[in-house]
Amino acid sequence: MLFLVSILVLLPPVVCSASVSCANSDRLHILHKYYHPGDIIISGIISQFYAFSRPINFKTYPSHEPIDDLVHFFARWTYLATIELLSTQGRFIPNYKCDVKDNAIAFLGGPNSDLCHFMATILCMYKIPQLIYGSAPVINNRIEGVFFHQMFPNGVHQYRGILQLLLGFGWTWIGVIFMNDESGERLLQNVIPMFSQNGICFDFIQDLPHATFSSGISDMVEEGLEIPKVIVRSTATVVLLHGEIQTMLFLRMLPVILKYEDIPVNQTSKIWIMTAQMDFTSVAFQRNWDIGFLHGAISFAIHSMQVSGFQKFLQNRNPTTEKEDGFIRDFWQQAFDCVFSSPISDTKVGETCTGEEKLETLPDSVFEMRMTGHSYSVYNAVYAVAHSLHAIHSFKFKYRKRTDSRRQELLNHQPWQLHHYLSKVSFNNSAGEKISFDQNGELVAGFDLINWVTFPNQSFLRVKFGKIDPFAPKDKLFTAALDAIVWPSMFNQVQPLSRCNDICHLGYHRTQKEGKSFCCYDCLPCPEGKFSNQKDMDDCSECPEGYFPNHKRDSCLPKDTSFLSYEEPLGISLVTFALSFSFITSLVLGIFIKHQDTPIVKANNRNLTYTLLISLLFSFLCTLLFVGRPEKLTCLLRQTAFGIIFSIAVSCILAKTTIVILAFMATKPGSRMRKWVGKRLATPIVLSCSLFQTAICTVWLSVSPPFPDYDMHSMAEEIVLECNESLAVMFYCVLGFLGFLAIVSFSVAFLARKLPDSFNEAKFITFSMLVFCSVWLSFVPTYLSAKGKFMVAVEIFSILTSSFGLLGCIFFPKCYIILLRPQLNSRGQLIKLKHSRI
What we know:
Layout: E1 6-10, E2 18-22, E3 27-30, H1 37-53, H2 75-86, E4 107-109, H3 113-123, E5 130-132, H4 142-146, E6 148-150, H5 155-169, E7 173-179, H6 182-197, E8 201-208, H7 217-233, E9 238-242, H8 247-260, E10 271-274, E11 298-302, H9 310-315, H10 328-336, H11 373-399, H12 406-411, H13 418-423, E12 426-428, E13 434-436, E14 447-454, E15 460-468, E16 478-480, E17 508-512, E18 521-525, E19 530-531, E20 541-542, E21 547-549, E22 556-558, E23 560-562, H14 569-594, H15 599-602, H16 606-622, H17 632-666, H18 679-703, E24 707-711, E25 718-724, H19 728-751, H20 761-785, H21 789-820, H22 827-837
Parallel strand pairs: 4-5, 5-6, 7-8, 7-9, 9-10, 10-11, 23-25
Antiparallel strand pairs: 1-2, 2-3, 11-14, 12-13, 14-15, 15-16, 17-18, 19-20, 21-22, 24-25
Helix pairs in contact: 1-10, 1-11, 2-3, 14-16, 14-21, 16-17, 16-21, 17-18, 17-19, 18-19, 19-20, 20-21
């Protein structure tokens, strides 16, 4: 909103001279060929400072118009200044020009986009090229847009660079302050959504108050006082300041407002990120204000280079040597806080200016001796027009005869003829950089990243620590030496954090807080079997196959191969029990063979007894197939051997129980059951049951036999080497048939438990089958809930327990009588016992 218009008037003689004009109609004549490059730029620098230090004195305007600092908010002054420059020098007659020497052929405007827009309203009617060295205004009229040539790169690259900077530092929780104008609307409509889509959240988005006149000044002040309070309440460490050059005036006011509100300045220490449209400036009453709030700030700037000899040129510049420069006297008075003596007035209002003061003695907050990004753009803009005019001259010189009228023809160039050459201009400036425009009339350039370092004497350094090169490969768009950044003192040179909450550490993942921004979340530990090896993970990941999460769940460890081995305590214990039970079974079998002629051994079919003992012996021994590393052969034999052996054992018990019932029925006179008692019935029962189970196992092995396999998933920290049953349905068919035999045997034995007998074996069979069925009924849920090698251990335990239950319940009572009560193992005693029970 503060007013600055720099207007470029170029005349094309052979040496290509130029004339630079500013809004107050003072003329600075600079010779392009013979003057130092610094000459071209000095008017832009000094007039820029001057314009922001005091209002322009429009001497040619009616004296009854009220002119004060707020005059710069009026668009009409821009229109008047533009029209005045299109008129004859010294005479304000719109649309008339009485001389042909000082024809304006191009205008250089900036740094405020509103001013450029107001200029365009007039200049586009005359088809005069306009070079904008600040942010370009929004031009809705395509005809007006044709005459714009922007010395400012495409702003999209800047916003992408800001996004990369925020993401690079992990600053996902920021505040935004912007000017409520067209550029601010573009920020809200295009940039803020882009930031949100890439994970940036906003604690606040605050617009600066409009500059208004007396009727609304109180509201403007009230709004302005609220902004520091919003900043103080914010938990965001980083604040993006989006505006133009006058926005710096607000930033400089911030410490004063905080002091007025009794808020300690150190409570509001923020990392300021400023856009390239901004630059350091101040009004006269701010010259002695502290600039410490800028220490550690980061700003984007149009890529620039230092022009050789520029500082030397500034050192030689003063009001004494440059009497035709209408700006330099006013600038000198403002910069050195002095006044030049006037013959008209004898009143002394301050120190007298000598004109010999040195610019280099001024602090940077008053005048910078280095070329800024805006000044570099003005420098290149002047040369762009000069090179375009030179191109026109070369073109006409090539295709026209050399006549005395050639100079007059060149002097009468029309402004619209320059557009074609400006759009295609390409040259290397004195700093060695190539200057050209793209198809949209925008400067082909990138942005520099600047770190502000301030000093107590009101001086500061702009330290370049990186750049944004939109023409580099995508992975090199943003390059910066982040370690070189100087941070505000309160952060003790440690990179600040700006997040809604602490990051989720390794082993945790984020979960959204209800009703909060997506940057605000809680951290929960990873669930069982998952891990997170990065901070702020949205979800935990599963380890690759063959790995498992460690205790902290922040990395994966290789799984150990696990199987029930002979070396571990569980395997040793089971093998010991199996061998012990096998030995006991062998011992019982030996006892029965030794006493095979005794009545108690002969009772209930001696051959069935031997078959049952041998099957129990093999059932104990078959458990050894389950221990050790699974191999192809052991996997084939495990379940099939177990199923067939147990079928023989249970069928023997069924046969023994059936014989007991038939023996009782055969004692009745005339009974036909006598012929079935003995081997005639026992053999078919045992063979049929065994062969049926064998058929099931044969089908299983033929269709899809078990095989060694690795179970990667059932155990979290181990790879289980197991025998894959392949067809689980066949395994459950084997168990189902065994269960059917056991239930039938138990039912028959239960019915025969009270039958009179000299040694009623049915009672012991009933109890043994009760133990057997209980073990295998509990086996199924236990087996299904177990994992890894413990599944094998459960099956081995069930085999050993059920087999030992049969052995103990059926044979231990008989061994007791054979070994300890031999007097009861006689025919007479058995007959006596039989009659006593009847």
